[in-house]
């Protein structure tokens, strides 16, 4: 198995959550087959973790398989599992910023982010973004990015992301829908090796509006955009009734499902593969993945944290980096 030229940068996320624990567990499982380094305070790692401080990202390529490479970033407060400390919020933000700089400078092949607590960041650092996705777009100076959730057998993209349900109809515009589909289409070709991605698009309303009887967004907004993109050569079906899009036979007919709001996309993927889903940000000038779960404060420190989603995220980052020109296989 070829070794990568560069390691993946993994941010610590919320120290009080399971991020430090699953980072160590991922290293134990992956070993040196998929080199990555963790950016954070080594005092926040589990007591049993074997780690070594590195000064440069490239040093992560040379460490033993049973040792976690750590790019040290000291925090002001100790880790208390399950209890976020506002004093650490600015450090969480700074680690993300540092990791983005490393990837953009070409010192790391891709970025994988540990789960953050938005509440803790707002309270401790006046965090002004709805989530990781929007913050990374800001750091990359990109006007629009797309959040995709992926697992074996299903990829989903919500057009509107962290928007209250009552505001979704107003937020859903032709430009937003068109850009979301185009960014998704281009990323599936570039980063996932699909020559002609098959795209299924859900309606907003029950039964995709049922010809206007249950809402007219499908007629006014969704269908015209899909017709335009079909004319441009995109392989698109829809708008479809969301309640029939996610059974096994339906999923076999497309490569990605475009959904109109957060839960319409996330409920099916978390039902199918709660532990192994991956969050991917499309439209950035670098590869970014993340485990598709939160900080799990309720089980932090208990030893029960499952690293499956993080491992899947690291592997997906490696695969995407390979298609962008880094010779990875993991």
UniProtKB/TrEMBL annotation:
A GO CC term? cytoplasm
Identify the cofactor(s). Zn(2+); Mg(2+); Co(2+)
Binding sites annotated in the UniProt record for substrate: 132-133, 270, 279, 288
Q: Which Pfam families does this one have?
A: PdxA
User: Its GO biological process terms?
Assistant: pyridoxal phosphate biosynthetic process; pyridoxine biosynthetic process
The pathway noted for it is:
Cofactor biosynthesis; pyridoxine 5'-phosphate biosynthesis; pyridoxine 5'-phosphate from D-erythrose 4-phosphate: step 4/5
Q: Where in the cell is it found?
A: Cytoplasm
Recorded catalytic reaction(s): these are: 4-(phosphooxy)-L-threonine + NAD(+) = 3-amino-2-oxopropyl phosphate + CO2 + NADH
Q: Which UniProt keywords apply?
A: Cobalt, Cytoplasm, Magnesium, Metal-binding, NAD, NADP, Oxidoreductase, Pyridoxine biosynthesis, Zinc
The family assignment reads: Belongs to the PdxA family.
Q: What is the protein name for this chain?
A: 4-hydroxythreonine-4-phosphate dehydrogenase
The protein's organism comes out as Albidovulum inexpectatum
């Amino acid at each position: 198995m070829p070794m990568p030229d560069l390691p993946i940068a993994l941010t610590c996320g919320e120290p009080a959550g399971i991020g430090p624990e699953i980072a160590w567990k991922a290293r134990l499982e992956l070993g040196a087959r998929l080199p990555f380094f963790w950016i954070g305070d080594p005092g926040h790692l589990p007591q049993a973790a074997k780690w070594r401080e590195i000064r440069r990202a490239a040093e992560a390529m040379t460490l033993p398989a049973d040792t976690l490479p750590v790019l040290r970033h000291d925090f002001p407060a100790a880790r208390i599992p399950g209890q976020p400390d506002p004093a650490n919020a600015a450090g969480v933000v700074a680690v993300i910023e540092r990791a983005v700089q490393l990837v953009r400078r070409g010192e790391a092949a891709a970025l994988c982010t540990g789960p953050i607590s938005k509440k803790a960041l707002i309270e401790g650092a006046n965090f002004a973004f709805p989530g990781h996705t929007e913050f990374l777009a800001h750091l990359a100076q990109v006007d629009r990015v797309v959040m995709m959730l992926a697992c074996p057998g299903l990829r989903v993209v919500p057009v509107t992301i962290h928007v209250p349900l009552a505001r979704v109809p107003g937020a859903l515009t032709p430009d937003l829908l068109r850009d979301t589909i185009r960014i998704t289409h281009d990323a599936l070709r570039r980063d996932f090796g699909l020559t002609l991605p098959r795209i299924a698009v859900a309606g907003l309303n029950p039964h995709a509006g049922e010809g206007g009887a249950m809402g007219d967004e499908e007629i006014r907004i969704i269908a015209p955009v899909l017709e335009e993109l079909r004319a441009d050569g995109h392989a698109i079906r829809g708008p479809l009734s969301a309640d029939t899009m996610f059974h096994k036979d339906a999923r076999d007919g497309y490569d990605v499902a475009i959904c109109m709001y957060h839960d319409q996309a996330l409920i099916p993927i978390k039902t199918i593969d709660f532990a192994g889903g991956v969050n991917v940000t499309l439209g950035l000038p670098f590869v970014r993945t993340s485990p598709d779960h939160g900080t799990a404060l309720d089980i932090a420190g208990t030893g029960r944290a499952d690293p499956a989603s993080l491992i899947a995220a690291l592997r997906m980052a490696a695969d995407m980096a390979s298609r962008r020109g880094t010779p990875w296989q993991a």
